[in-house]
Amino acid sequence: MEWREEGVLLARRLHGENAAIIEVFTENHGRHAGIVRGGAGRKLSPVLQPGTQVDVSWRARLEDHLGTFTVEPVASRAATLMGDRKTLAGLNALTALLSFALPERETHAALYHRTLALLDMMGESPFWPLAYVRWELFLLEELGFGLDLGRCAVTDRSDNLVFVSPKSGRAVSRVGAGEWADKMLPLSPALIGEGEGSADDIRDALTVTGHFLKNWVAASLGNRPLPEARARLVGLLSRE
């Protein structure tokens, strides 16, 4: 078995004395792991960093084997983003969440392209936190946990939507919430393509996506804790 494709490196861990096991996110093979011979050495260690765009060739005797990668660097993003704490935190949160949440070898082509667009935006635009919020929302949808924020779950109206139900993931109007308003999550304009992406809007939006990443996605994976990298990003953005 063999294939070759370009992808984003998500994670690396040492394997034996001189090898490494890496995870790569590609368009056609999803999150895919493999061994890199010499991956712990001086030549390859700087290349095998989260966020690096790589050209990988995977080979294994059988399809269900771990297999081995040969790796050629295409573009290093960590060096570009390292100068800013927030962008580096965004890179680390994104790669950690993909490694955490994606089923291995399951194709998510649309998510792959959104991920590339966001990574490129991180090095170019100060508005990337707003795009990151939308990326987390799309990640939930891709995993089968999409939110329904178009109409009120109680009144079925599309006006005056200000909350999100923490149980159903549906929007709720102020009237619809009634006495349960204090139990609801805030419906940030950042989640529905409105507003200017203020720090408060970003914080409220990440509160919502974080709730469902924890209570829906993580719960489906055995209640593993969400990556610390995401918490660090939320902390940095919340202190603005």
List its traits.
de novo design (two linked rop proteins); 36% helix; three-stranded antiparallel sheet; OB fold (Dihydrolipoamide Acetyltransferase, E2P); 240 residues; 7 helices
Task: Give an account of the 3D structure.
This protein has about 240 residues and is an alpha+beta fold. It folds into two domains: about 1-75, Nucleic acid-binding proteins (OB fold (Dihydrolipoamide Acetyltransferase, E2P), Beta Barrel); about 80-150 and about 185-240, de novo design (two linked rop proteins). Helix content is about 35%, strand content about 20%. It has seven helices and eight strands; from the N terminus they run βββββααααββαβαα. The protein has helices spanning about 80, 85-100, 110-120, 130-140, 175, 200-220, 230-240; strands at about 1-15, 20-25, 30-35, 55-60, 70-75, 160-165, 170-175, 185. The strands form two sheets. It has a five-stranded antiparallel sheet with strand order 3-2-1-4-5. Strand 1 and strand 2 form a beta hairpin. Helix 2 (about 85-100) runs antiparallel to helix 7. It is elongated and about 60 Å long. The N and C termini lie far apart (about 50 Å). The mean pLDDT is about 95.
How many discrete structural domains?
Answer: 2
* Helix content, binned percent: 25-40%
Largest sheet: 5 strands, antiparallel
Mean pLDDT: 93
Overall structural class, as computed from helix and strand content, comes to alpha+beta
Order of SSEs, N→C?
EEEEEHHHHEEHEHH
Query: Largest beta sheet: what is the strand line-up?
Result: 3-2-1-4-5
Strand content: 15-25%
Q: Please tell me how large the radius of gyration is.
A: 19 Å
Q: pLDDT under 50 segments (min length 5)?
A: none
The name of the CATH superfamily of the largest domain reads Recombination protein O, C-terminal domain
- The CATH class designation of the largest domain is Mainly Alpha
Please give the alpha-carbon distance between the first and last residues: 49 Å
Helical element count?
A: 7
Estimate the global geometry from the Cα principal axes: elongated
The number of E-state strands comes to: 8
Second-tier CATH architecture of the largest domain? Up-down Bundle
- CATH topology tier name of the largest domain: de novo design (two linked rop proteins)
